[in-house]
Every structure is written in C-alpha cells, then in structure tokens.
Design a protein that fits this description.
Shape: elongated
InterPro entries: CbtB_put (IPR012667)
Mean pLDDT: 81
Organism: Streptomyces phaeolivaceus
Keywords: Membrane, Transmembrane, Transmembrane helix
Helix content: 40-55%
Number of helices: 3
Order of helices and strands: HHH
Distance between the termini: 74 Å
Structural class: mainly alpha
Protein name: CbtB-domain containing protein
Radius of gyration: 25 Å
Pfam family, one: CbtB
Strand content: under 5%
Length: 73
C-alpha cells in the first residue's frame, strides 16, 4: 500500500513567452549576413572573385570547403 507524503497539487498549463517579430528581426538579419559572409569565404574566396589577395584564406578554409562539397582543385 503506497502512501503519499503530500497530496497532489493541481498543475497549471505552461504557456511559452511571446516574442515579437520586431525583437527577433535584427538578430535574424545579423546572423543571416554573418552566414552569407562565412559561405562566401568558404565557397568562393579564390580566383577572380577574391577579396583577399594570396592563398591564405583558401588554406584556412580548405577542409571546410571539401566537407561542404565545394570544388577547389
């Protein structure tokens, strides 16, 4: 026979907090631009579209380029 130490209490439903779109939009734009810049450096930073001269950026992101399927050789 099981006896409870405390009687069960009624639970109230959990309601998630509302986040207005105007509070999220600046962060979404910031991270979107950041991801586009990162995608550029991993995927296209070499050759005719190069912003940084030399092979330094290419060597830094070389493995990520292969991992994501971008051709580089």
């Amino acid at each position: 026979m099981a006896q409870h130490a405390a009687p069960p209490t009624p639970t109230t439903p959990v309601v998630p907090a509302e986040l207005p779109l105007r509070d999220i939009a600046p962060w979404a734009v910031f991270f979107g631009i950041l991801m586009l810049v990162l995608l550029y450096f991993v995927g296209a930073e070499q050759g005719a579209t190069s912003v940084v001269s030399g092979e330094d950026v290419h060597e830094w992101v070389h493995d990520a380029r292969h991992l994501l399927g971008f051709p580089c050789h």
